[in-house]
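thread: overnight batch results

M.L. [08:02]
morning all. the overnight job finished for the chain we discussed friday. pasting input first so we're all looking at the same thing
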Amino acid sequence: MASSLTPALSKAEGAKDEKNKVLSFGEDLGEAAGFAVIFDMDGTLIDNTPYHFKSWQALYKKYDKGELSKQTYYTQISGVPIMETLKGLFPDRDEAGLKELLKEKEEFYRKEYAPYLAPINGLVNFLTALKDAGVKMAMATSATIDDIDFILNKIPIRGDFDAIVNSSMVSKPKPNPQIFLKAAEELGHDPAKCIVFEDSLAGIKAANSAGMKVVAITTGHTAEDLHPVDLVINDYAGLTVQRMAELFNKNKDE
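M.L. [08:03]
and the structure it wrote out:
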């Protein structure tokens, strides 16, 4: 079974201890370990999945598509590019019509989520630790460019990423591994030396198919549902670069 990582220190003590840990193995660990890190966005950098779910529910209701269950959302919609889902739901709509539906869905989501938009606990410190250690980072997301800007214009982490790959840059959506392989290519890293952070089942399948290490975060699923992975976390508090390097010394779900 994959283990859940939970912080054992108070927030103040944890922040101090984490800083000391990063400094203790210096800024060369990332290069010495030779690994890179790739992050999904929705549900991984921010806990926005409930608001995407609500916006899809509203769209289903408005256009008489039946009631959207959480089961259907998490297994068939989450992690998949929005346009792919819309094409399946509205096969009679042309490209212009699908874009109007996309705009409608996204406007509802942004209005609902904007007051609560924030990074997942511990993320900013973890990104800083990775960057200080020389670890290359990319974002690989099924989100649209507008949605990416909506998040990154509010959370000042854009500069932490050496590459950002969105759904328009690949031809095959998750669970196909293409987006993660593209991110590895952009970073100049062997896929086998990449770690993917994901929350969705489609994303985890894609990362595994790419031959990468996988860290799953429990924003949308229980730890038991997230497999096969190398580590399960609830948030980023207490994560260190050294912990990431250690993933290459173990097998999935150990």
